[in-house]
Design a protein that fits this description.
The chain is an alpha+beta fold. A hairpin with a 4-residue loop joins strand 1 and strand 2. The protein has a single domain, classed as Endonuclease, Chain A (3-Layer(aba) Sandwich). It binds zinc ion (2 copies).
């Protein structure tokens, strides 16, 4: 009889450093390769980008929803909350710092959420191809409705927002029964920070 290894607890998973070669990351790499892109994995650059186009100086990260504060899917742990909140804040601050370091070196940065790759791979591929000045090779399908609407839009109009911390347990997934009470958000476009209550029920866009 073979003994199955006990699955890692969430704490054990979280204690690991940025996960590499996650499924969405592999999916995006594979699709880019199929589209004729040649890249480096985890190049020796700030943040060790998941995918780096050396000639074009374009760095692509596939950010896990839980690790990097996806405004759609972040779910907070009910146990040891201060630790995870500090961890999330640390991760988002580090992402921000590494983006700035890359830009200072003349690189452009694209961050794709894991859920975006899962929900619409072709779209994620087209973002990268566009940034490389290439035309997507595949004929695009009619646009796929992309998940539930974001519950938060920055006053600058951007929805590229990360969650830095939440108060109360629950998930930011619009369909979740239990959602946190509030969240600290940071706009990745203009770097404005907000403290906002999390809306329950139907998704809504809050004024900045
Ligand atoms: Zn997500
Ligand atoms: Zn903004």
């Amino acid at each position: 009889m073979t003994r199955r290894r006990a699955p890692m607890t969430r704490s054990q998973q979280m204690a690991r450093v940025r996960q590499r070669d996650t499924k969405p990351e592999l999916q995006l790499r594979k699709a880019l390769w199929a589209a004729g892109c040649r890249y480096r994995k985890q190049a020796a650059l700030p943040g060790r980008p998941d995918i780096a186009f050396i000639g074009a100086r374009l760095a692509v990260f596939v950010d896990g929803c839980f690790w990097h504060g996806c405004p759609r899917h972040y779910s907070s742990s009910a146990t040891n909350r201060p630790f995870w909140i500090e961890k999330l804040r640390g991760n988002t601050e580090r992402d921000h710092r590494q983006d700035a370091e890359l830009r200072a070196l003349g690189w452009r940065v694209i961050r794709v959420w894991e859920c975006e790759v899962k929900q619409d791979l072709a779209r994620a591929v087209s973002w990268v191809l566009e940034a490389l000045g290439k035309t997507p090779t595949t004929v695009s399908e009619p646009p796929v409705p992309y998940g539930p609407p974001l519950w938060f839009t920055c006053s600058c109009g951007s929805t590229d927002v990360v969650v830095q911390s939440v108060t109360g347990p629950g998930s930011l997934n619009i369909r979740a029964k239990r959602r946190p009470e509030g969240a600290t958000l940071r706009c990745r476009h203009c770097d404005t920070r907000y403290e906002r209550p999390v809306h329950h029920g139907a998704a809504s866009t809050l004024p900045g």
